[in-house]
Amino acid sequence: MMRAGHAITGLCAGLAAAPAVGVTNPTGVILGGTVASGAALLPDLDHPGATATRRLGWMTRGLSKGLRACSARLYEATKGPRDENCDGTHRHMTHSLLFAALLGALVGFGSQLAASWHPTAGFAAVLLPVLFCLLLAQAQFGHWVAAPVVAAAVPMALSDAGPVAAMNDLAGPIGILIGLGCFVHCLGDAITKAGCPFLFPLPIAGETWYEIRLPAFLRFRAGGSVEKGLTTVVFTPLAAWLLLITIAPRVPAYLTTAMGL
């Protein structure tokens, strides 16, 4: 899949999953969905020309270079007798369920540990990955990303507990949503012709990096008309519906407050 497909499927997955991982406030759900959307672009940091790699200049280029080097070494050390002869960079280490789980666990447990040590540390541990993922999502959705940021920031700032406590409530769930975004990226690539070795390191047919694919008649070319059709006709309306059912229950309360009733 290309950037648009990854971003919109990540948004759908995040909006659907956020309530299940303990994010029940509508503003938090929208923020969580947007974070998952940005995280769905993270695996392509293993490509030097990807949006994620170019997003923050030298910082993300350096991160990309490090990830590609790690991926190449991991591939060389673990490839099976029937794995292809390649450098093992793009669509390898970062395109696996293992990577998604480890990254999600690092962010989730790290933010929880920081929050247990000091609320300000927890605030920073949640804020940094959230901002990074929002910047990635902004590359696809433009200034529309400001809407969930404002929608989440204002209630957090005005809450009785304050913004620090509100952000600490996201410690843990934010890691799950980031890991989910990465995994959704892998699934998106798996339905294209290239496939995706997301079950690494499970050996299949003599390959440690076996590309999981759909049956041949169901595969499509990344960036082709089928992908564009799915993005436009299926996932964009689905994202709009998920946003609607998230916001709609709160509309009467917002109107009542605004009218001073």
Automatic annotation (TrEMBL):
Annotated InterPro entries: YdjM-like
Keyword terms: Hydrolase, Membrane, Transmembrane, Transmembrane helix
Native organism taxonomy: Bacteria, Bacillati, Actinomycetota, Actinomycetes, Pseudonocardiales
Residues in the signal sequence: none
Example of a GO MF term: hydrolase activity
Protein name per the record: Membrane-bound metal-dependent hydrolase YbcI (DUF457 family)
Organism per entry: Halosaccharopolyspora lacisalsi
Isomerase as UniProt keyword: no
Superkingdom of source: Bacteria
Transmembrane domains' residue ranges: 97-115, 121-137, 144-164, 170-188, 229-251
Keyword Cell membrane in record: no
Pfam families for the chain: YdjM
